[in-house]
Amino acid sequence: MREGTREASESKRFVVTSKDSVFVGLDVHKRSVHAAVRLNGREVDTFVMPGDVATVVGSLDRFKAALKQIVYEAGPTGYGLARALRKAGLPTKVVAPGKTPRPANPDGKSDRLDCRKLAEFAEKGLLKEVALPTEEEEADRQVLRLRDQLTKKRRRVKQQIKALLLAYDIPEPVGLKYWTLASVAALLEMELRPQLRLVLSCLVEELKQLIKRLEQARAEMRRLSRQARFRDNQRRLRTHPGIGETTAMAYLVEVYQPERFGGAKALTKYVGLAPRVSQSGERRLEGPLMKTGHGTLRTLLVEASWMWIAKDEQARKVFERLVRNTGSKQKAIIAMARRMAVNLWCMLLRQEDYRQAA
After folding, report:
1. CA Rg value for the chain
2. What is the dihedral of CA 175, 177, 183, 186, to 10 degrees?
3. What is the distance between the alpha carbons of residues 191 and 194, in angstroms, rounded to a whole number?
């Protein structure tokens, strides 16, 4: 235990009433949670407690009568603690780490300092809350992310196989460019040194397992798409040119609770398709994308935009105009992906199918 920080059982005991105002900042880790308490505009206590949810809820329940807000930053520990605190009637917000104010010349960093700053910023209203998904929404999103992780692992194993063949001047089987079943089977029949045979066989077996797991993830996505909570909206999004089943489901599980966005600008920032703007006086520069959110959705929207301009003549004209204005097809297609993201958002809010612009 660090100097100046007490265990929860040893923290200062004081009585609060409904007339008081209490803000609590938490720095949450797997095994421990550091807490700072501000009462009526001043810090009155800091303490550390075990990281299990029941202990944290029990330690903070004594402030319930005066509690205005408990805050902690989103991170690897997820949202389970926030849900438990809210269920216990304790007002809790999970805040965006990237939006937490940072001093230009920080004095230092520790768990105790972090929770103290969070409590102070919460009291001043300087923190930006992130939307808390339901347990079901979070589980749905993990299926999409599993698919993405498996796809990346499959690509990496394919690269390892080709790198091994290249390094030892082993001819590739016919069809390996497209990874046909016959070419993969041929990899296991090659006559190689025992050491290389072992390595190649392990890689091929890993590839087969990844293909099997990837098909299971895709099947689960298809199953979800047929459920009542997704069925109508998925069909609605697919009326937009270029949107297929995968992109529609990715949009629905990543852009959960679409009504929470205050406008198109907030949405495009969330999906990582808003440019970073730097403006001073009459000088305005648009830099690279603010790649927030999950990269898979951003990639799918860009890919879908190429199909959109191929199928929709009006969209094609807009794309060509953007190419002339920017001098770059890459910038133009990003702008089209941004338009597509907003279109899909509007379709969900209005519960309308796609309507081509006049």
Report:
1. 26
2. 110
3. 9
Predicted confidence (pLDDT) at residue 34 exceeds the cutoff of 70: yes
Entry pTM: 0.84
State how far the Cα of 215 lies from the Cα of 34, in Å rounded to an integer.
Answer: 42
Q: Exposed, middle or buried: residue 174 (CB in 10 Å: 0-12, 13-18, 19+)?
A: exposed
Cα separation, 335 vs 331, whole angstroms: 6
Beta partners for residue 284, in sequence order: 279
Per-residue pLDDT reduced to its tens digit, 81-121: 999 999 999 999 999 998 899 887 777 789 999 999 999 99
Looking at residue 31, what is its pLDDT?
A: 93
Is the pLDDT reported for residue 1 higher than 50?
no
Q: 6-124 has which CATH code?
A: 3.30.420.40
Give the integer Cα–Cα distance in Å for 316 and 95: 40
Please state the domain extents for the chain. 6-124, 135-225, 230-278+285-350
Q: How many angstroms separate the CA atoms of 93 and 87, rounded?
A: 13
Strands (E), the chain: 6-7, 22-28, 32-39, 42-50, 67-73, 92-95, 275-280, 283-289
Indicate the residue type of 358.
A
